[in-house]
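Issue 218. Parser rejects a valid record. Input:
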Amino acid sequence: MKKYFLISFLILICLLSFFLIIKIDNNKESYFKKGFTINQSSHTHDIWFYQSVKDLESAEKLHNLGYYNTASYLCEQAVEKALKSYYLFKFNKTPPKIHDLVLLSDQLNISEIFNPFIGNLTLETIDTRYPNINNSIPYLSYNYSLSDYYLINSKQLLNFVYEKIN
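Output the parser choked on:
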């Protein structure tokens, strides 16, 4: 029963997020539409952000191929790099060498905007890669809906950071 409730809840979140993304993308030109580029003279925060975009593009490709656990992991990596990009931009100093997205978002004063997504995604750095963490095999325990939830919300966060640093 809990499993069906969780799946239904995730599907509802995905649908709501999807409609929100469409609204955001129709109102503003996102970094995906602008064709974000990078070169040797780019600021450090731009380089971090560029890598986060590439990680998210890879996540989307793997998601479309059915590698949902790896796609979810790359969403976590993309968000972490985007947050560190924003940290570099906002504080003009090297971001802390941590992987806790909740702590990073707290330091940037944006945790309330992206909760509970950030908290859920933080766990994916471990759960997506190591067997027996949750008494399961990651490849078999991730599905389209969960991976899609992470992709949609990661895109929202990257769009948010892009607007802040540009």
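Fixed in the parser; the record now loads. Residues 2-22+43-165 form a domain with the Four Helix Bundle (Hemerythrin (Met), subunit A) fold (CATH 1.20.120.330).
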